[in-house]
Design goal:
413 residues; mainly beta; Porin; eight-stranded mixed beta sheet; 27 strands; 13% helix; binds 2-acetamido-2-deoxy-beta-D-glucopyranose
């Protein structure tokens, strides 16, 4: 079903599809970013009477805005590609790198609602939507992704397809080695081959390395408005991979409490990035302004896989989560272990969490909102207690009635 949906979407995109190549050069003329991709945007906007939704493609005449793009400003390592089109619309891709990979750390789509050719009947104004893009590749490799890579933001959805892209180019051209996106690798985890497994246990779960619970780490993120994320939690990443001898294995990694972390704050999105060795975890929190709730919308997990694995590393993400939800101004608390399913081959387990995102007064956790799991756990003793109390009451009433009956009996004789 999902595959058919993708094909249909691909066919729709294909109708008008034409990818163009964008390049960013430094002052000496050396190319640092090369990118070739197709993009479909879907924007929700308000007219006087209702909310409209409009989809359009990045046009063929889209061009690099040289003044806004850069190979790296002084002291910074980030590289920026800005592609402009039409009447004041632009797509900003900010790249960052670490020791072994580069990624789009922020994608911003800036659009002009006054452009009536794209947004008929709109009330107008310049808007912006931004987010980490979930696009990451090893340094000195070309990132390739034919399938659709979706990025959901508030009011805007961006679909990338047929992407060939590389930042921090070593040699003015795409590197020969590739990093392929997860969307192009639907069979990363091959089903276990039965000849390797005794018939009696053909449904055996993958072998897991037993681990202790992770230690609790303390994390905080601040922006220009002050602190926007405060968390104490134990984090564990659970991944499944196929090996060269065609078995499926899984591995559990605890993040140490001193994991280095960073993040960003803005009005609609808060991110928390954690890196421990080759393992990195990125959380994206969103706010539902009308419901006054915040929640975890996206997780990106990258990790190196052990030597026997068919792939060198794993890059799993899911941007349609609705986890760790609480009221803005309050903190989310859960003593029970919570497992957040990301994809068929990765999940993140969270232990003993207290978390607050967006509005935090006095740099301290606000009133606690207990998670459902904890509430259920508390409910059991309450139900058992109530049942016992009820039983005692019934026995007591039965005894009193019995006593009254027997008294009455004596009197009649
Ligand atoms: C990618 O490009 C190919 C060839 O240019 C085209 O046939 C295909 O429809 C494109 N796929 C998507 C998802 O846009
Ligand atoms: C850009 O991508 C399209 C489709 O993937 C391909 O046909 C085209 O040759 C590419 N352009 C360049 C300059 O690489
Ligand atoms: C937005 O669109 C309007 C109408 O096309 C145009 O007058 C205005 O200059 C545009 N704004 C920008 C920043 O390009
Ligand atoms: C870079 O390109 C030049 C010329 O094409 C080539 O001689 C050189 O080996 C390349 N270097 C690397 C690291 O690929
Ligand atoms: C491509 O990857 C292989 C294996 O990791 C490595 O040995 C080789 O040097 C890489 N090639 C280039 C041009 O970087
Ligand atoms: C974290 O702590 C461990 C031991 O407790 C230490 O080996 C490691 O270097 C520390 N890492 C960082 C980033 O401080
Ligand atoms: C915000 O919450 C309301 C009420 O729970 C819900 O109807 C709406 O779909 C949510 N909006 C988003 C963008 O999640
Ligand atoms: C993302 O997570 C949601 C909720 O757990 C799940 O329904 C959905 O299938 C996941 N998406 C992908 C692409 O795996
Ligand atoms: C945030 O983290 C820093 C460094 O770990 C710490 O010094 C500071 O006290 C923390 N702030 C809060 C409000 O917890």
């Amino acid at each position: 079903m999902a595959a058919r949906g993708l094909l249909l979407a691909a066919a729709l995109l294909g109708l008008l599809q034409a990818s163009s190549t964008f390049e960013v050069k430094d002052k000496s003329g050396k190319i640092c970013i090369l990118a070739n991709f197709s993009v479909q945007f879907t924007v929700e906007y308000n007219t006087k009477t209702k909310t409209e939704s409009k989809s359009f493609l990045l046009p063929v005449n889209a061009h690099v805005i040289k003044e806004a793009s850069s190979c790296s400003k002084e002291k910074e390592t980030s590289q920026v590609l800005v592609v402009g089109f039409g009447a004041g619309h632009s797509l900003h891709l900010m790249f960052e790198k670490n020791a072994d990979s580069y990624m789009i750390s922020n994608l911003t789509f800036s659009y002009n609602l006054s452009d009536t050719s794209l947004f008929p009947d709109s009330s107008g104004g310049q808007r912006e939507a931004s987010k980490a893009a979930g696009i990451q590749a090893e340094l000195n490799t070309t990132y390739r992704c034919h399938n659709i890579h979706r990025i959901n933001m508030q009011n805007v959805t961006v679909l990338f397809s047929n992407v060939t892209l590389e930042a921090y180019l070593p040699n003015n051209t795409f590197s020969k080695n590739d990093s392929t996106c997860a969307e192009d690798n639907p069979t990363t985890v091959a089903p276990p081959v039965t000849t390797h497994i005794p018939t009696t246990s053909s449904l055996a779960p993958p072998t897991t390395t037993p681990t202790t619970n992770p230690d609790i780490g303390r994390y905080n993120v601040s922006g220009s408005q002050g602190i926007c994320l405060l968390a104490t939690m134990g984090l564990q990443v659970s991944i499944t991979y196929s090996t060269k001898n065609k078995t499926v294995k899984s591995e559990v990694l605890n993040l140490p409490p001193n994991t280095t972390h960073s993040g960003t704050c803005d009005n609609s999105t808060v991110t928390l990035n954690l890196t421990s060795g080759s393992t990195s975890l990125s959380f994206q929190f969103m706010q539902n302004v009308s419901a006054e709730k915040y929640f975890l919308q996206g997780i990106v997990v990258t990790a190196n896989l052990p030597l026997g694995a068919t792939e060198k590393n794993i890059n799993a993400f899911n941007h349609s989560l609705n986890a760790l939800k609480a009221t803005v101004g309050k903190s989310y608390k859960c003593v029970a272990e919570e497992s957040i399913w990301i994809s068929a081959n990765a999940s993140v387990n969270i232990y003993n969490i207290q978390l607050q995102v967006f509005k935090i007064s006095g740099d301290k956790f606000g009133a606690v909102e207990e998670c459902q799991l904890d509430e259920n756990n508390m409910l059991i003793p309450i139900i058992v207690g109530a049942a016992l109390a009820g039983l005692v009451l019934i026995v007591l009433i039965a005894y009193l009635i019995g006593r009254k009956r027997s008294h009455a009996g004596y009197q009649t004789i």
